[in-house]
Amino acid sequence: MKIKRFLAPxxxxxxxxxxxxxxxxxxxxxxxxxxxxxxxxAAVDYDEALMREAARVNAPPAPAPxxxxxxxxxxxxxxxxxxxxxxxxxxxxxxxxPKETRAGALPPPPPPPPPLPLPASELAALQPMIExxxxxxxxxxxxxxxxxxxLEQQLSSLAWNDMERRSPMRARVLxxxxxxxxxxxxxxxxxxxxxxxxxxxQARYLPLGLLSRSLKVxxxxxxxxxxxxxxxxxxxxxxxxxxxxxxxxxxxxxxPARVALVSTDHYRIGAAAQLEHYGRLLGVRVYxxxxxxxxxxxxxxxxxxxxxxxxxxxxxGNDPRLQQQMDVLREASAHGAAQLRACLVLAANAQSSAxxxxxxxxxxxxxxxxxxxxxxxxxxxxGLLSALIRHRIPLxxxxxxxxxxxxxxxxxxxxxxxxxxxxxxxLGLAGDDLDMAERFGMAVAGL
Length: 447
Hints:
Layout: E1 2-8, H1 11-22, E2 27-33, E3 38-44, H2 48-58, H3 74-79, H4 82-92, E4 101-102, H5 120-166, H6 168-180, H7 184-191, H8 200-214, E5 227-232, H9 239-254, E6 259-263, H10 271-282, E7 285-288, H11 292-301, E8 307-311, H12 321-335, E9 340-347, H13 352-362, E10 369-373, H14 382-391, E11 395-399, E12 408-410, H15 413-427, H16 433-445
Subcellular location: Cell membrane
Protein name: Flagellar biosynthesis protein FlhF
Region (Disordered): 59-116
């Protein structure tokens, strides 16, 4: 048996020294707090029987055992109070001897106390250091962001130059798509359908054919417009004027008695008056509807009409009234006599991101078709084509002016794509290598 004394500043360090010196099987014989720290006597190869024998030989003779206290009579025990009985039990209970504990089985030390808050004076002294550290951190983030942007630009340029070298015809197609204003994701989707080996003539005409084939049209003629149609879309896209054009076409083919207009736009000043003016010119009656119940009753009343056109308020995608308008249309369709069909109206002169946001906002009502307006005011049709191809919404008809009903025509994919190509040639738009690298380089590199 090897016995050794350990002295450390605290109990935790002393136990580490015991484990490091004698291992986890060491036995703690005694502990004592001194001025220098904590003293621990530990042993290895501990023999309990030998220690008891040594203690019995070296110990002084034990005094004679004291006589056991006699239990008081029953009557006296009854007179004792509970406090006195508890005090007697404590006096009779011997103190527990310190138990031997192995070093490997000691309980974990208590958690350290929480740090004390700094005084106000010290905190004020540290405030300039904290602000300086925050400024340095912000400057480092800015530098890392600039470095990342520079690295992405370099990688994009390398990827685009490599694609021009390896697949010059595909790079030419992407350049033509960029000139048309087609979004990056749609352009990448279209060139994936191209054959691997294409010549210069194919690279010139195939992209237009792919655009025409990818653009979905309803194929419905203006004379075939029938049923209950609600025109929805953002404000200012020309819904009321488009309704007047559709109503004029329906009156021309079916007569004014079988055509009706319904106005639900009570937000824009003069919206109902504008629709009523068109109705008087066409000889068509206009019905107001203020809520879902009123719209359902009006549609039930007009169930025998050939064409019923519903004018709705222009609501953007982030307007809280959009959900209310959708609920009105759903309830009216559920309780009306005829199935209501929603048609989304998009302005071709809007930005590509605005068109995409409008489509996503109105997707919950599942528009059956789309009408493209203001083609004459759009410098480029790439944003409109990208939104229609991306969301696969069939195009019903297009409008390109304010005349009623002359400036409206049924949708034709080839005519629309050729018009987009003619606008591109007229404007002479051409993307440089830096612009092409920024748009397609990261996509080509797969980053």
